[in-house]
């Protein structure tokens, strides 16, 4: 990404350095930086500070830019009334399990598709990729019916974390991403490992996985953020107040709590994903474009 | 590590018996391959492949008090007769078109703009993608309570008033409901599209712009004749992905408009599926509506692919 700064884009660099172009460029840059900050940070600022205001101050016109008597009572009461510690723990627990299941099962599958290549492997990969074309909302009802009465076993998985973990394994995009990465690992390395007497599991563990850290990181981050952001599925399969995720919990309380309390809870719910983003933004952004077709 | 050492004797024994026939080895290789695939295949079978089939079967059945019977097209006729059915489709199509007009063009031009800037690139990229990382419920409550507050204390109304523009009732006004939902949805989701466009813009060879400029092409001509043709593939792909995603819009109406809005002004097809399946105790009807939606999207996709491949 660093070398692109030198390459020519729509407007040539020379044009931007000279007289009028330079003036225009800096004006535009300032406007863009200010405008984007306003559009993307502004609402978040409003949200964080709004929850520091009292109910009366929020309702007053014109609104105040900075709370007159900032107090954390909304945050405190949101934390207590919504039982946020429990909700956050639940969400974190589901996210951690989702990472584990996706890493183990999707990596194993991608490894099989890429390196072991069993008979009919491509057919199965095709059947998995085809599920990407099915809109999730169409699958929600039959998936729900399956989860409340698992075929053959006749188990009811409601309120069980497996109801979130196992369906998330069916992430064909992850399998595709991992397979493509494994495909780029030279065959000679595999052959060398085989000559040294390493079996398939040993090769995966000692050769493939250490080389695949970046892509495994991307898959993990996406799994965490997916669980953190997901709404409809956890709402359906985690009906009890004790098993809810944080988004669903806030929604469930939104009717009976004050607006400021809900906003305070929303801020708290957003903190973990924002932190993840700021820490891993490079991996997230490269992962996002890794799967896209070069056009 | 324990697992690894446990599998070792198997390999050792096969190495010790070089007489294994080719067929035997092939069978063993396939067996290893499928051992690695087993977990994923099982999950796909139970949670995706089987439900796909089951959804279609369910749409022709009716379960009442634990007894399931075949009812032919009954679920479909009931769904079509629901007074919310046509409003839901109208709203969904309206949302999709509006999201295409606002949410599709904006990220492309934002990406072009960001690609031209030589400074603050990292900062701007983080800003654009930040809303994507927020839980949708959090972001939507922000819009619902603060931005779309119909009084003058609301963020948007305060800004409009400051600019001496007429204020709006937002979610309380049936005509403003859909645009308001599209604005919120675009703000929340445009980051991914911007970054994908940015990546594909960076793949455009600089010489193309150079040549176009030498031929006297102005800024707009360069966008029209170089940038757009060079990113056509990704533009087409994202258009398709966005349409399929926006056709399933659910959280926005649920949180911003309490589901249906005023007089079905916000009801979408996805919300209607949810409503039938989980409030009206009509999972079979919901499954039928799902099949209708699948059919509609399949027809649309086929049409779209036909249209876009014809141009080539």
UniProtKB/TrEMBL annotation, chain A:
Its main location: membrane. Residues 88-280 form the ABC transmembrane type-1 domain. The chain crosses the membrane at residues 23-46, 92-113, 120-142, 162-182, 203-228, 262-280. It comes from the Bacteria. It is a multi-pass membrane protein. The keyword Transport applies. GO terms for cellular component: plasma membrane. It is found in: Cell membrane. Pfam families: BPD_transp_1. GO terms for biological process: transmembrane transport. Keywords: Cell membrane, Membrane, Transmembrane, Transmembrane helix, Transport. Belongs to the binding-protein-dependent transport system permease family. This is ABC transporter permease. It comes from Actinoplanes cyaneus.
Automatic annotation (TrEMBL), chain B:
It comes from the Bacteria. InterPro entries: MetI-like, MetI-like_sf, UgpAE/MalFG_permease. Gene3D superfamilies: MetI-like. The chain crosses the membrane at residues 31-50, 93-114, 126-147, 178-199, 233-251, 286-305. It is found in: Cell membrane. GO terms for biological process: transmembrane transport. Its main location: membrane. Keywords: Cell membrane, Membrane, Transmembrane, Transmembrane helix, Transport. Residues 89-304 form the ABC transmembrane type-1 domain. It is a multi-pass membrane protein. GO terms for cellular component: plasma membrane. CDD domains: TM_PBP2. Belongs to the binding-protein-dependent transport system permease family. This is Sugar ABC transporter permease. It comes from Actinoplanes cyaneus.
């Amino acid at each position: 990404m660093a070398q692109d700064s030198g390459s020519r884009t729509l407007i040539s660099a020379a044009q931007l350095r000279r007289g009028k172009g330079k003036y225009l460029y800096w004006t535009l840059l300032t406007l863009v930086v200010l405008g984007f900050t306003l559009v993307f940070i502004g609402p978040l600022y409003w949200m964080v500070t709004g929850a520091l205001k009292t109910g009366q101050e929020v309702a007053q016109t014109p609104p105040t830019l900075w709370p007159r008597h900032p107090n954390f009572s909304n945050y405190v009461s949101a934390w207590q009334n919504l039982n946020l510690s429990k909700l956050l723990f639940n969400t974190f627990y589901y996210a951690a399990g989702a990472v584990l299941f996706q890493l183990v099962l999707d990596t194993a599958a991608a490894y099989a598709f890429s390196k072991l290549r069993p008979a009919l492997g491509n057919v199965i990969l095709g059947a998995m990729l085809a599920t990407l074309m099915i809109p999730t909302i169409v699958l929600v009802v039959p998936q729900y019916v399956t989860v409340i009465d698992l075929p053959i076993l006749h188990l009811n998985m409601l309120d069980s974390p497996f109801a979130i973990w196992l369906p998330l394994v069916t992430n064909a995009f992850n399998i595709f991403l991992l397979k493509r990465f494994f495909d780029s690992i030279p065959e000679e390395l595999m052959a060398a490992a085989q000559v040294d007497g390493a079996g398939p599991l040993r090769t995966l563990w000692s050769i493939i996985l250490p080389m695949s850290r970046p892509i495994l990181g991307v898959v993990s981050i996406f799994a965490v953020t997916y669980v953190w952001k997901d709404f409809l599925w956890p709402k359906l399969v985690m009906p009890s107040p004790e098993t809810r995720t944080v988004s669903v919990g806030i929604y469930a309380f939104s009717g009976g709590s004050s607006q400021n309390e809900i906003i305070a809870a929303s801020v708290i719910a957003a903190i973990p994903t924002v932190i993840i983003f700021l820490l891993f933004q490079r991996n997230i952004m490269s992962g996002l474009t890794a799967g896209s077709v070069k056009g | 590590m324990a697992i690894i050492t446990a599998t070792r004797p198997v390999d050792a024994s096969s190495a010790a018996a070089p007489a294994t026939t080719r067929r035997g080895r092939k069978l063993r290789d396939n067996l290893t391959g499928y051992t690695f695939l087993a977990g994923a295949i099982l999950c796909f079978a139970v949670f995706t492949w089987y439900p796909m089939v089951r959804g279609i079967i369910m749409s022709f059945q009716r379960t009442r008090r634990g007894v399931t019977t075949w009812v032919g097209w009954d679920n479909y006729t009931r769904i079509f007769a629901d007074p919310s059915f046509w409003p839901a489709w109208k709203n969904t199509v309206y949302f999709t078109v509006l999201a295409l007009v606002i949410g599709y063009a904006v990220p492309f031009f934002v990406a072009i703009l960001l690609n031209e800037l030589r400074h603050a690139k990292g900062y701007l990229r983080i800003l654009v993608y930040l809303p994507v990382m927020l839980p949708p419920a959090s972001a939507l409550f922000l819009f619902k309570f603060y931005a779309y507050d119909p009084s003058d204390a609301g963020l948007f109304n305060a800004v409009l008033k400051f600019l001496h523009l007429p204020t709006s009732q937002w979610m309380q006004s049936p005509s403003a409901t859909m645009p308001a939902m599209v604005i919120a949805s675009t703000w929340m989701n445009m980051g991914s599209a911007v970054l994908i466009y940015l990546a594909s813009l960076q793949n455009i060879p600089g010489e193309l712009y150079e040549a176009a400029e030498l031929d006297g092409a102005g800024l707009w001509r360069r966008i029209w004749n170089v940038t757009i043709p060079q990113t056509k593939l990704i533009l087409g792909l994202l258009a398709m992905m966005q349409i399929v995603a926006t056709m399933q819009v659910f959280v926005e109406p649920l949180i911003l408009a309490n589901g249906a809005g005023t007089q079905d002004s916000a009801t979408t097809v996805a919300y209607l599926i949810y409503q039938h399946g989980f409030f009206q105790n009509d999972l079979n009807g919901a499954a039928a509506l799902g099949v209708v939606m699948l059919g509609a999207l399949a027809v649309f996709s086929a049409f779209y692919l036909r249209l876009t491949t014809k141009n080539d």
